[in-house]
Prior knowledge:
- The structure holds 2 protein chains of 2 kinds.
- By secondary structure, chain A is mainly β.
- Chain A is built from no helices and 10 strands.
- In chain A, the strands form 2 sheets. In chain A, strands 2, 4, 5, 8, 9 and 10 form a 6-stranded mixed sheet that branches. Chain A has a 4-stranded antiparallel sheet with strand order 1-3-7-6, with no helix packed on it.
- Chain B has strands at 4-6, 11-14, 19-25, 32-38, 45-51, 54-58, 61-66, 71-76, 85-93, 96-99, 103-108.
- By secondary structure, chain B is mainly beta.
- Chains A and B meet through β4, β5 and β9 of A and β5, β9 and β10 of B.
Amino acid sequence: GAGVSQSPSNKVTEKGKDVELRCDPISGHTALYWYRQSLGQGLEFLIYFQGNSAPDKSGLPSDRFSAERTGGSVSTLTIQRTQQEDSAVYLCASRGTAGPAYEQYFGPGTRLTVT
Amino acid sequence: QKEVEQDPGPLSVPEGAIVSLNCTYSNSAFQYFMWYRQYSRKGPELLMYTYSSGNKEDGRFTAQVDKSSKYISLFIRDSQPSDSATYLCAMENTDKLIFGTGTRLQVFP
Lengths: 115, 109
Protein backbone atom coordinates (compact mmCIF):
# COMPACT_ATOMS: atom_id res chain seq x y z
CA GLY A 1 0.00 0.00 0.00
CA ALA A 2 0.95 3.63 -0.32
CA GLY A 3 3.15 5.11 2.35
CA VAL A 4 3.32 8.66 3.63
CA SER A 5 3.83 11.15 0.83
CA GLN A 6 5.03 14.73 1.04
CA SER A 7 5.11 17.55 -1.45
CA PRO A 8 7.01 19.29 -2.75
CA SER A 9 10.17 17.22 -2.36
CA ASN A 10 12.27 20.36 -2.66
CA LYS A 11 11.38 24.00 -2.14
CA VAL A 12 13.59 27.03 -2.60
CA THR A 13 12.14 30.31 -1.42
CA GLU A 14 13.31 33.82 -0.74
CA LYS A 15 13.62 35.16 2.77
CA GLY A 16 10.37 36.75 3.88
CA LYS A 17 8.08 34.65 1.67
CA ASP A 18 5.47 32.23 3.01
CA VAL A 19 5.63 28.51 2.20
CA GLU A 20 3.20 25.61 2.50
CA LEU A 21 4.33 22.02 2.87
CA ARG A 22 1.91 19.16 2.35
CA CYS A 23 1.68 15.72 3.97
CA ASP A 24 -0.57 12.84 2.87
CA PRO A 25 -0.59 10.23 5.64
CA ILE A 26 -1.26 6.54 5.28
CA SER A 27 -4.99 5.99 4.77
CA GLY A 28 -6.77 5.37 8.07
CA HIS A 29 -3.94 6.67 10.25
CA THR A 30 -5.36 9.03 12.83
CA ALA A 31 -2.11 10.33 14.29
CA LEU A 32 0.11 12.71 12.30
CA TYR A 33 3.39 14.33 13.30
CA TRP A 34 5.61 17.02 11.81
CA TYR A 35 9.33 17.14 12.50
CA ARG A 36 12.19 19.35 11.38
CA GLN A 37 15.62 17.90 10.67
CA SER A 38 18.50 20.36 10.52
CA LEU A 39 22.15 19.54 10.00
CA GLY A 40 23.59 18.35 13.27
CA GLN A 41 20.30 18.79 15.14
CA GLY A 42 18.53 15.49 14.66
CA LEU A 43 14.75 15.35 14.35
CA GLU A 44 12.97 18.10 16.23
CA PHE A 45 9.29 17.58 17.07
CA LEU A 46 7.04 20.38 15.81
CA ILE A 47 3.36 19.40 16.12
CA TYR A 48 1.16 16.33 16.69
CA PHE A 49 -2.43 15.69 15.56
CA GLN A 50 -4.48 12.84 17.02
CA GLY A 51 -7.97 12.35 15.63
CA ASN A 52 -10.32 15.18 16.54
CA SER A 53 -8.35 16.25 19.62
CA ALA A 54 -6.68 19.64 19.83
CA PRO A 55 -3.19 19.38 18.32
CA ASP A 56 -0.08 19.39 20.49
CA LYS A 57 1.74 22.47 19.23
CA SER A 58 4.39 22.48 21.92
CA GLY A 59 7.28 22.04 19.46
CA LEU A 60 6.52 24.92 17.12
CA PRO A 61 9.54 27.24 17.33
CA SER A 62 7.69 30.51 16.74
CA ASP A 63 4.30 31.93 15.78
CA ARG A 64 5.47 32.02 12.16
CA PHE A 65 4.85 28.27 12.10
CA SER A 66 1.37 26.78 11.94
CA ALA A 67 -0.22 23.56 10.77
CA GLU A 68 -3.66 22.26 10.07
CA ARG A 69 -5.17 18.93 9.26
CA THR A 70 -8.30 18.90 7.18
CA GLY A 71 -10.82 16.09 7.42
CA GLY A 72 -8.51 14.08 9.60
CA SER A 73 -6.28 13.29 6.64
CA VAL A 74 -4.05 15.68 4.70
CA SER A 75 -1.98 18.14 6.70
CA THR A 76 -0.33 21.40 5.69
CA LEU A 77 2.57 23.03 7.52
CA THR A 78 2.80 26.76 6.86
CA ILE A 79 5.83 28.90 7.56
CA GLN A 80 5.24 32.62 7.27
CA ARG A 81 7.94 35.22 6.60
CA THR A 82 10.59 32.54 6.15
CA GLN A 83 14.05 33.09 7.62
CA GLN A 84 17.34 31.47 6.60
CA GLU A 85 17.38 29.46 9.82
CA ASP A 86 14.17 27.77 8.64
CA SER A 87 16.22 25.90 6.02
CA ALA A 88 15.90 22.22 6.90
CA VAL A 89 14.19 18.99 5.92
CA TYR A 90 10.61 18.87 7.13
CA LEU A 91 9.39 15.35 7.79
CA CYS A 92 5.88 14.10 8.33
CA ALA A 93 4.94 10.81 9.99
CA SER A 94 1.69 9.00 10.65
CA ARG A 95 0.56 6.07 12.79
CA GLY A 96 -2.62 4.14 13.44
CA THR A 97 -4.96 4.82 16.37
CA ALA A 98 -3.92 1.84 18.42
CA GLY A 99 -0.28 1.90 17.44
CA PRO A 100 2.42 2.82 19.97
CA ALA A 101 4.24 6.10 19.45
CA TYR A 102 7.28 4.39 17.99
CA GLU A 103 5.26 2.86 15.14
CA GLN A 104 5.42 6.02 13.10
CA TYR A 105 5.84 5.79 9.34
CA PHE A 106 7.80 8.64 7.87
CA GLY A 107 7.51 10.34 4.54
CA PRO A 108 10.60 11.25 2.49
CA GLY A 109 10.52 14.86 3.65
CA THR A 110 10.48 18.29 2.02
CA ARG A 111 13.88 19.95 1.73
CA LEU A 112 13.36 23.67 2.29
CA THR A 113 16.04 26.17 1.36
CA VAL A 114 15.57 29.83 2.24
CA THR A 115 17.85 32.15 0.29
CA GLN B 1 21.75 20.08 27.83
CA LYS B 2 19.70 18.06 25.36
CA GLU B 3 17.44 15.30 26.67
CA VAL B 4 19.11 12.82 24.32
CA GLU B 5 22.77 12.97 23.34
CA GLN B 6 24.29 11.07 20.43
CA ASP B 7 27.71 11.32 18.81
CA PRO B 8 27.13 12.47 15.21
CA GLY B 9 30.17 10.64 13.85
CA PRO B 10 30.84 9.99 11.05
CA LEU B 11 31.88 6.44 11.81
CA SER B 12 33.73 4.57 9.08
CA VAL B 13 34.36 0.82 9.38
CA PRO B 14 35.39 -2.03 7.08
CA GLU B 15 32.88 -4.62 5.97
CA GLY B 16 32.50 -7.38 8.57
CA ALA B 17 33.32 -5.16 11.55
CA ILE B 18 31.22 -4.95 14.70
CA VAL B 19 29.70 -1.52 15.07
CA SER B 20 28.67 0.05 18.36
CA LEU B 21 26.36 3.06 18.41
CA ASN B 22 25.38 4.78 21.64
CA CYS B 23 23.12 7.37 23.18
CA THR B 24 22.77 8.86 26.62
CA TYR B 25 19.67 10.51 28.01
CA SER B 26 18.67 12.54 31.03
CA ASN B 27 14.96 11.82 31.60
CA SER B 28 14.54 8.79 33.85
CA ALA B 29 10.83 8.58 32.92
CA PHE B 30 11.60 7.23 29.45
CA GLN B 31 10.37 3.63 29.09
CA TYR B 32 10.56 2.91 25.35
CA PHE B 33 13.86 3.15 23.50
CA MET B 34 14.12 2.99 19.73
CA TRP B 35 16.64 2.89 16.96
CA TYR B 36 15.79 4.23 13.53
CA ARG B 37 17.78 3.92 10.33
CA GLN B 38 17.72 6.70 7.77
CA TYR B 39 19.13 6.37 4.29
CA SER B 40 20.11 9.47 2.37
CA ARG B 41 17.12 11.50 1.14
CA LYS B 42 14.66 9.15 2.88
CA GLY B 43 12.61 9.29 6.05
CA PRO B 44 13.70 7.30 9.13
CA GLU B 45 12.44 3.73 9.49
CA LEU B 46 12.10 1.83 12.75
CA LEU B 47 14.86 -0.71 13.22
CA MET B 48 14.30 -1.92 16.77
CA TYR B 49 12.59 -0.95 19.99
CA THR B 50 13.17 -2.02 23.59
CA TYR B 51 10.94 -1.60 26.61
CA SER B 52 12.73 -0.76 29.85
CA SER B 53 16.16 -2.26 30.57
CA GLY B 54 17.62 -5.29 28.86
CA ASN B 55 18.76 -6.65 25.55
CA LYS B 56 16.92 -7.40 22.34
CA GLU B 57 18.34 -9.20 19.35
CA ASP B 58 17.14 -9.22 15.74
CA GLY B 59 19.44 -10.91 13.28
CA ARG B 60 22.70 -8.98 13.13
CA PHE B 61 21.34 -6.20 15.35
CA THR B 62 21.31 -6.08 19.17
CA ALA B 63 19.84 -3.26 21.21
CA GLN B 64 20.81 -2.76 24.85
CA VAL B 65 19.29 -0.47 27.45
CA ASP B 66 20.88 0.33 30.79
CA LYS B 67 18.40 2.53 32.64
CA SER B 68 20.62 2.82 35.72
CA SER B 69 23.25 4.56 33.58
CA LYS B 70 20.74 6.19 31.20
CA TYR B 71 22.68 4.65 28.32
CA ILE B 72 21.50 2.75 25.26
CA SER B 73 23.45 0.95 22.57
CA LEU B 74 22.95 -0.61 19.18
CA PHE B 75 25.39 -3.26 18.00
CA ILE B 76 25.66 -4.34 14.39
CA ARG B 77 27.52 -7.58 13.75
CA ASP B 78 29.12 -8.51 10.41
CA SER B 79 28.43 -5.02 9.09
CA GLN B 80 27.65 -4.70 5.37
CA PRO B 81 27.98 -1.79 2.94
CA SER B 82 24.16 -1.76 2.83
CA ASP B 83 24.21 -0.79 6.52
CA SER B 84 25.68 2.60 5.55
CA ALA B 85 23.11 5.10 6.80
CA THR B 86 22.39 7.46 9.66
CA TYR B 87 21.23 5.75 12.85
CA LEU B 88 19.02 7.72 15.21
CA CYS B 89 18.15 6.76 18.74
CA ALA B 90 14.80 7.92 20.08
CA MET B 91 12.81 7.76 23.28
CA GLU B 92 9.09 8.07 23.83
CA ASN B 93 7.64 10.87 25.91
CA THR B 94 3.82 10.99 26.11
CA ASP B 95 3.06 9.91 22.53
CA LYS B 96 5.95 11.93 21.11
CA LEU B 97 9.45 10.85 20.19
CA ILE B 98 12.62 12.61 21.33
CA PHE B 99 15.45 11.92 18.89
CA GLY B 100 19.20 12.03 19.14
CA THR B 101 21.14 13.87 16.46
CA GLY B 102 21.93 10.65 14.59
CA THR B 103 25.25 8.91 13.88
CA ARG B 104 26.35 8.63 10.27
CA LEU B 105 27.81 5.18 9.56
CA GLN B 106 29.85 4.27 6.50
CA VAL B 107 30.75 0.62 5.89
CA PHE B 108 33.35 0.25 3.17
CA PRO B 109 34.00 -2.97 1.20
